[in-house]
Amino acid sequence: MDSSTTSPSPAEAYAAARRRSRYPQLTRFAAEVSFEFDDFQVRGCEALEDGHGVLVCAPTGAGKTIVGEFAVHLALAEGRKCFYTTPIKALSNQKYGDLVERYGSDIVGLLTGDTSINGGAQIVVMTTEVLRNMLYAESTTLDDLGYVVLDEVHYLADRFRGAVWEEVILHLPDYVRVVGLSATVSNAEEFGEWLVEVRGDTTVVVDEHRPVPLWQHMLVGGRLYDLFVGERADTGEAKLNPRLLRAVEEAGRMHVPAGLRGRGRRGAPQRGPRYRPPSRTEIVDRLDRAGLLPAIVFIFSRAGCDAAVTQCVRSGLRLNTPDEVQQVRRIVDERTADLPPSDLEVLGYWEWREGLEQGIAAHHAGLLPAFKETVEELFVRGLVKVVFATETLALGINMPARTVVLERLVKYNGESHVDLTPGEYTQLTGRAGRRGIDVEGHAVVVWQPGVDPRQVAGLASTRTYPLRSSFRPGYNMAVNLVGRFGAAKARELLEQSFAQFQADRSVVGLSRRIERNTEALRGYADAVTGDFDEMLSYLTLRKKISEREKALARQNTAARRAQTAKSLEKLRKGDVIAVPSGRRAGLAVVIDSGVDQFDEPRPLVVTEDRWAGTLSLSDFPTPVEPLGRLRLPKHVELRSPKTRRDIASSLRNTGIRPPKRQRWRSDAHSDPELAELRRQLRAHPVHGMADREANLRWVERYQRLAEDNQRLKRKVAATTHSLARAFDRIRRLLIERGYLGESGDDVTEHGQLLARLYSESDLLAAECIRQRVWHGLAPAELAAVVSTLVYEARRDSTAEAKVPSGPVNKAWQETVRLWSDLVEDERRHRLDPTREPDAGFAWPVYRWARGESLEKVLTSAEVNGQELSAGDFVRWSRQVVDLLEQIRDVLGKEHPVGGAAGKASRLLRRGVVAAGEL
């Protein structure tokens, strides 16, 4: 081989030598690793050694952490401290393990809120919230701090926690160098400009080059097609694969939309093959045959992920060799050694383990943390070949794969089904391609009817993932800022936030839009040929009619609901009823009427398909009538499958048939107000105009644009100094409630308590302590009430929240009363309302604190209509523990509530809740 291809030229060798002499620490650091640094890593490290702060934006898996680890190296070389922060405990634990392996446990510490290991060490890994709390407490641990690494700094866009990152950046001393590590964002320069403004000299290093190229594909039926083939000669853009377009067109013809099935255009039965999407087992098998495993298959549903694993396991799909199965068993045994044997059955341990042995797993927020961490380790080791995951896997943990599969391009956001954005698509597919292992990564979209390859191409080609600040002042932040800096300086600090920086920039664009809209409004008005004001009054009449019709519909719904509730209250044990629609449609027999004097009736029933559970008003669109009676034993044991089977069989043998659904008649036709409005509309001079509708369309456009313009003007007015004004409103409320002094410039004794409560419902927690609402509660009772400030039911949950009777119920009612008073004050001060306490976790955490088994806790939740997985139970329990320990630390163990909080946290820290914690 020609030596010129491997040896640098004399000039290059000289330049490299000069660079080594200029950056001696980087030279030493690079010598410790076994690979050559990429250009962006070199630029980031050089900027750090030059004394600058650094922001590094690069794709997932590109190796951003090298720059963060160099900050650790520099701190050790300079005899200073380095704090390495991450957004989640699992990442902190992972990074702690990496650094201990490299530098030893004497030099490295870990702080994650509930874990403290060697907190005074020279290098400390911590969650970002821990650093924020240190800064507010002016902890001596900050002495000699030289570097702070903010890993995953793009988390500052997170709606609930993002403010923490900005608080840290704003409050760190000027002499501390900040290293921000971020995923690729399209406004990195804007973020960098803000960092320069608030932190001084900061170098922005952006690298959009993926270390492993990504190939895009679509799976149509059982065939895998490339999304792109070459580039267009005229534009240089990627060209869609014509074979893919033909395949999709053909598959689309085979698919018949639901509303058209059964009959053709002339009423004849439709013939021809029907399109059948590939099963999840077939998808995995196809990837395996193409050599595209390991893979992450994103399914935007926890239940969907679990069902996919079950399907693959039952199909007999085996992706692991006998030797790999032995390795899996060893790791699973090590990872789950802390789990109580009595809980394994209810945790679904054996089914989960069987999937792992076959190389198949699920990964979602409902999994037990120990299960999730085991899946992560096995996947990284190549012992799990396919993971069915929700989009939460796209954040944080390092789990790259050869292939990423998207089952759908639509996900449910808790309120509606929405299309994936280009940013979300980029984030999800960013997992594909393992550096140093794969030559290329692969992204596969499974074709579904209605999916256009052009839509996929648009998602794959667009690289827009802007970072948007979620920063806004809160009560805890306000008292801490006033306590540290005084009100005037605190206002200045808020004005320096990234949120205000972005808001002020947006005003320029809004002003231009207002000018363009004003010009367009003149054009719309000129286009109307009739009397503009008459047209406007006619449109107003139409709007009133529409609003009246909607109001009547609402009244109708309320009346129907009241009559339905009355009919449910009359039901008795043994009544046979018909559930008209939904998953439980069909005959059912009432086991218990479920009448509650304080709430709507929720009858407990067994259906003809053996389901047992409670029904609610939402299951009955019209009043319900008993269709017959069924003799039942005095005591019905619903937990027995045989009992449910016998009842369902008796129900089917009654010969009763569900009646046809009844329609509820509307009162709109008999409403005098609506009749009068319709008469006025017919008598209006515009009503008989020949070109009425054409003119009205212009007036409607005018109205919509005028409203939009007013909204924009309000936005401009509200945007300028918006955070400082919100801070002033918070201060006024805190002064009224005695947390700040009359001047609003000093913190009271109550304010000192609030300053140490870090919770979404911080002020409500402080009020409950201050008003002695939680005094006298036993530890388990306190855990139940405190959980209402932490827990938030999933938005699709329909379960009714209940609390234990006695002291818990009384304290809960008082907590809700304080919340109601607080929300009234917040409305008066034009502040976002504090989230309503949610009692959905009170019973489970109460049972657990009293020592009941996990099986009993989860089964009881299920009987009450709650969907509570073991993973959710552990996650919420740990959050309750966190708030309880804050209350203990704020009040002290000698205080009645502080002592009860400490005991409650100890009672909760057992079994699966304590398992796996460092």
Automatic annotation (TrEMBL):
What range does the record give for the signal peptide?
Answer: none
Instruction: Read off the InterPro entries from this record.
Output: DEAD/DEAH_box_helicase_dom (IPR011545), Helicase_ATP-bd (IPR014001), Helicase_C-like (IPR001650), P-loop_NTPase (IPR027417), RNA-DNA_Helicase (IPR050699), SH3_HelY (IPR058621), Ski2/MTR4_C (IPR012961)
Pfam families xref list? DEAD, DSHCT, Helicase_C, SH3_HelY
Entry keyword set: ATP-binding, Coiled coil, Helicase, Hydrolase, Nucleotide-binding
| Keyword Repeat found | no
Lipoprotein as UniProt keyword: no
Q: Name one GO cellular component term.
A: Ski complex
Q: State what protein this is by name.
A: RNA helicase
Q: Per the UniProt entry, what are the Gene Ontology biological process annotations, in alphabetical order? A: nuclear-transcribed mRNA catabolic process, 3'-5' exonucleolytic nonsense-mediated decay
- Look up and give the organism this protein is from: Saccharomonospora viridis
Q: Where is this region: Disordered?
A: 258-278, 648-669
Give the coiled coil ranges: 695-722
Ranked from the top, the taxonomy reads:
Bacteria, Bacillati, Actinomycetota, Actinomycetes, Pseudonocardiales
Care to name a GO molecular-function term for this sequence? nucleic acid binding
Q: Which residues form the Helicase ATP-binding domain?
A: 45-203
In this chain the Helicase C-terminal domain maps to 286-483
